[in-house]
């Protein structure tokens, strides 16, 4: 098209119309051995697809009460009835039936809270992201655990509620008019002409008032306790890996900076810590957490197994993240450091304004890769007896009516992981392309 | 550096030294050191008190105690009467055994997959990429359990064993995979010596051929010659010394097989899962490595008149190896580390035998965790050390 409009100066190749016959000839049948390979490939695809179809759809049993019944109906097909019976268990674990809305509610709040990050017209995205990381865990923690609230937790939950509502209103204003919540508030109260200091004070007062109102409102709000032993399924997997990744990034940055530090004591400590945890398998760290943490703590102070596991996963993830951050830092040319010094920036400002923003861009594919790895590795908590999704899948095959049902639940579990991990990796590739500012 | 500039402006007051970079660095390090030392002491103190109050003993003497449990698969002589130290060795050998085989097979399969992904055939490359994506995006533990529960624990009983290769020497059943094992006669040492001699000879021939080609340009089929030496010499010695080796073929006696070498089904499930899972990762790094070689290199080689095969082996692969080796190191280390998932299906590796069974039984948590971690750290450091040496040589020679 470009070529047609400006015949002389087209540097771009005109986009050829794809001729299907020619495409086939070039990509599938170019030589005699490619013909054989194509035929072989098609045959393998046929075998796999036909086998899966026969097992999973044609011969499958969709409605049954027990595995026996499935086998009686058709012994060769999949028994999806068992998966249907256990599917909620895969997602929520052994969380009480009447309380499962809390998990759904928590997920919906998280999604709504994060959606503004993807809306182009919304301002202050860093603030929104920070509010999610800082306050959502308290809200979700109470929502999922329930029980009595301490005063601290009450305050944090109030702040979380205020910032959630604030973010939503802010996002709506942003999308409709391109403005921000703060400016709209000031305009509505008619003080937009006042001095900066006054404006800021007014906003702080408004925020405090909102927190106070939220504090009153949430005081009556109480949900029954759900002990951590009932947490399970995909929910538990996501909780562990979510906490792991949110602590891993800041901790990893600190460790990586420590490893690159000029100060020998700090460098040696960080390097040892990173290398020790990176050279041993996660399962040994989990065993260490469950057997040694109780010995480390003062007498009479016990951590439950879930907390032990989360601490272990955080330590593990932080060390891997540290190496990714270090890789990103090493990719920054030395000139950037020197330029920052020449501008008179100190260490922290140089890192915060010059180095990290550039390095983070290099790190995105690796960070997402690490996130995927962590999500997959979380299944290891099965081995030490937490009921994450994989353990629920195994529980399904040990449930009396469905005893021996291994393949079908495993297939569904693999599918769930595949969907989550594959979409994350595709999204990271998209992000990488979007952020790629150099024109190589 | 900015801080040094500021120092004079404070007028040399009493607090000026806090802007001194040297003072700051000493101060920060001191604070870190004190904090770390305090935390370490605090943990140590708690631990000793806890051990005391629970009446648990500590120290490494326990490795001489009798373990008293038996295990399914060992490479060295072991029974319930042996010590915890022996259990540790058995576990380490089992871990290394499965990892080593998995590393070799995964590397071969991974290179194959990487090359398939670069195929000019659209279908082949898409199939390889589907293979990689499916395996990389599902958890390894799930794959191990799938192979174990879905395939290898459903094998027939010994009476209905599957006769592998159809010649009646290798059998697969739910007790394991039975293979003939060699029994060496007295004169077998001569054949082993011959193998070593043949290896040295083959390398000498290769070196000579290279020097001659560099000097005169004449080529010599060194690979074929080497292969011939390697096959002919040991076989000759073997025959001359009267074939001092027989095979112990497994045979069905009663309800089970006797003789031969056996690996348990858990080993097979773990091996297959490790090989397939890591071959996907190796495939990806091989593809990336080959793609990192600039197209101009291939074109230059073609314009010099090299055929595609020679181009690949003399120009592309040596340069690609530079990019492949570092990720390959970490994947190999991952194989060793991930073999610890054996604990989920009961293959007696070091974690299952030592960190789980021995720890639960004896209660020496700190010592056992420390020893197991030490083992993995040693393996990791050794692998990365050896390959880094190789890597450095490759880097130097090529640049």
Q: Overview of this structure, please?
A:
The complex is a heterodimer of chains A (440) and B (399). With 440 residues, chain A is an all-alpha fold. Among the domains of chain A are: 18-58; 97-225, no CATH class. Chain A is 72% helix and 0% strand. Chain A contains 18 helices and no strands. The two termini of chain A are 25 Å apart. Chain B is of the alpha+beta class and 399 residues long. Chain B folds into two domains: 2-46; 84-180 and 249-398, Orthogonal Bundle (MetI-like fold), CATH 1.10.3720.10. Chain B contains twelve helices and eight strands. In chain B, β6 and β7 form a beta hairpin. Chain B is globular and about 75 Å long. Mean pLDDT of chain B is 83; it is low at 1-12.
Shape of chain B: globular
CATH architectural designation of the largest domain in chain B: Orthogonal Bundle
Beta-strand content bin of chain B? 5-15%
The gross shape of chain A turns out to be: globular
Question: How many helices of chain B in DSSP terms?
Answer: 12
Arithmetic mean of pLDDT of chain B: 83
Q: Give the termini distance of chain B in whole angstroms.
A: 37 Å
Range of strand content of chain A: under 5%
The amount of helix of chain B comes to 55-70%
- Mean pLDDT score of chain A: 85
Distance N to C terminus of chain A: 25 Å
- Low-confidence segments of chain B, given as residue ranges, are 1-12
* Major sheet size, sense and barrel closure of chain A: none
Largest interface: A-B, 60 and 58 residues
Radius of gyration of chain B: 29 Å
**Strand element count of chain A:** 0
SSE arrangement:
The complex is a heterodimer of chains A (440) and B (399).
Chain A: H1 2-5, H2 20-27, H3 32-58, H4 67-73, H5 80-92, H6 100-114, H7 125-145, H8 151-177, H9 181-189, H10 196-219, H11 233-259, H12 264-279, H13 282-296, H14 305-330, H15 334-342, H16 347-377, H17 389-398, H18 407-435
Helix pairs in contact in A: 5-11, 5-17, 5-18, 6-7, 7-8, 8-10, 11-12, 11-14, 11-17, 12-14, 13-14, 14-16, 15-16, 16-18
Chain B: H1 2-9, H2 21-54, H3 84-117, H4 122-136, H5 140-152, E1 162-164, E2 170-173, E3 176-179, E4 181-184, H6 188-216, H7 222-240, E5 245-248, E6 251-253, E7 256-258, E8 261-263, H8 265-292, H9 295-303, H10 308-338, H11 350-362, H12 365-398
Antiparallel strand pairs in B: 1-2, 2-3, 3-8, 4-5, 6-7
């Amino acid at each position: 098209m470009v070529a047609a409009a400006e015949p002389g100066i087209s540097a771009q190749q005109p986009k050829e119309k794809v001729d299907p016959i020619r495409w086939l000839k070039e990509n599938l049948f170019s030589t005699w051995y490619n013909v054989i390979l194509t035929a072989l490939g098609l045959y393998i695809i046929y075998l796999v697809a036909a086998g899966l179809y026969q097992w999973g759809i044609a011969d499958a049993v969709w409605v049954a009460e027990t595995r026996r019944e499935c086998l009686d109906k058709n012994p060769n097909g999949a028994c999806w009835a068992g998966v249907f019976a256990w599917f909620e268990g895969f997602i929520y674990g052994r969380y009480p039936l009447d309380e499962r809305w809390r998990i759904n509610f928590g997920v919906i709040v998280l999604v709504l809270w994060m959606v503004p990050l993807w809306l182009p017209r919304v301002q202050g995205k860093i603030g929104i992201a920070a509010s999610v990381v800082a306050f959502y865990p308290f809200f979700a923690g109470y929502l999922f655990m329930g029980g009595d609230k301490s005063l601290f937790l009450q305050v944090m939950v109030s702040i979380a509620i205020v910032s959630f509502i604030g973010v939503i209103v802010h996002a709506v204003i942003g999308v409709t008019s391109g403005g921000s919540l703060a400016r709209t508030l000031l305009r509505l109260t008619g003080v937009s002409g006042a001095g900066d200091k006054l404006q800021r004070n007014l906003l702080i007062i408004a925020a405090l008032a909102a927190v106070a109102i939220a504090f009153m409102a949430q005081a009556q709000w109480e949900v029954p306790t759900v002990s951590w032993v009932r947490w399970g399924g995909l929910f538990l997997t996501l909780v562990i890996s979510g906490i792991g990744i949110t602590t891993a990034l800041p901790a990893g940055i600190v460790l990586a900076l420590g490893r690159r530090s000029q100060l020998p004591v700090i460098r040696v400590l960080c390097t040892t810590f990173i290398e020790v945890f990176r050279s041993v398998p996660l399962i040994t760290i989990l065993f260490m957490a469950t057997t040694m943490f109780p010995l480390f703590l003062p007498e009479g102070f016990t951590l439950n197994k879930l907390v032990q596991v989360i601490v272990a996963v955080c330590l593990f993830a932080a060390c891997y993240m540290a190496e990714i951050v270090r890789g990103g830092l090493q990719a920054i040319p030395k000139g950037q450091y020197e330029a920052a010094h020449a501008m008179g920036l100190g260490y922290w400002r140089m890192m915060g304004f010059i180095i990290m923003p550039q390095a983070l861009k290099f790190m995105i594919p690796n960070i997402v890769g690490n996130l995927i790895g962590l999500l997959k590795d979380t299944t290891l908590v099965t081995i030490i007896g937490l009921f994450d999704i994989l353990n629920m899948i195994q529980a399904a095959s040990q449930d009396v009516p469905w005893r021996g049902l291994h393949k079908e639940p495993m297939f569904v579990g693999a599918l769930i992981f595949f969907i989550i991990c594959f979409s994350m990796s595709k999204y990271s590739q998209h992000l990488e392309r979007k952020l790629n500012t150099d024109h190589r | 550096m900015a801080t040094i500039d500021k120092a004079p402006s404070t007028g040399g007051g009493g607090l000026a030294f806090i802007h001194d970079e040297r003072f700051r660095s000493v101060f920060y390090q001191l604070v870190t050191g004190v904090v770390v030392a305090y935390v370490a002491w605090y943990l140590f103190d708690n631990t000793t008190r806890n051990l005391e109050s629970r009446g648990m003993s500590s120290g490494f003497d326990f490795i001489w105690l009798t373990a008293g449990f038996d295990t399914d698969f060992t490479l060295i002589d072991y029974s319930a009467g042996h010590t915890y130290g022996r259990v540790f060795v058995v576990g380490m050998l089992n871990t290394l055994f499965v990892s080593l085989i998995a590393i070799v097979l995964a590397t071969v399969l991974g290179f194959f997959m990487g090359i398939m992904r670069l195929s000019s055939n659209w279908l082949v490359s898409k199939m390889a990429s589907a293979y990689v994506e499916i395996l990389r995006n599902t958890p390894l533990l799930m794959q191990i359990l799938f192979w174990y529960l879905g395939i290898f624990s459903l094998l027939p009983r010994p009476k209905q064993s599957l006769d592998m290769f159809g010649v009646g020497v290798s059998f697969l059943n739910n007790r394991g995979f039975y293979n003939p094992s060699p029994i060496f006669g007295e004169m077998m040492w001569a054949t082993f010596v011959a193998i070593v001699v043949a290896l040295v000879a083959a390398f000498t021939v290769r070196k000579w051929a290279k020097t001659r080609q560099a000097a005169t340009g004449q080529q010599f089929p060194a690979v074929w010659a080497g292969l011939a030496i390697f096959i002919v010499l040991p076989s000759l010695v073997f025959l001359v010394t009267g074939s001092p080796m027989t095979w112990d073929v497994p045979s069905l006696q009663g309800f089970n097989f006797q003789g031969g070498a056996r690996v348990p089904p858990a080993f097979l499930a773990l091996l297959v899962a490790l090989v397939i899972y890591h071959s996907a990762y190796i495939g990806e790094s091989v593809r990336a490595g080959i793609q990192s070689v600039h197209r101009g290199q291939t074109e230059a080689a073609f314009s010099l008149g090299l055929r595609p095969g020679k181009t690949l082996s003399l120009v592309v692969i040596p340069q690609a190896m530079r990019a492949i080796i570092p990720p390959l190191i970490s994947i190999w280390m991952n194989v060793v580390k991930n073999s610890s998932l054996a604990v989920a299906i009961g293959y007696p590796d070091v974690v299952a035998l030592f960190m789980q069974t021995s720890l639960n039984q004896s209660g020496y948590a700190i010592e056992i965790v420390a020893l197991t971690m030490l083992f993995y750290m040693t393996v990791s450091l050794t692998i990365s050390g050896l390959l880094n040496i190789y890597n450095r040589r490759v880097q130097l020679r090529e640049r």
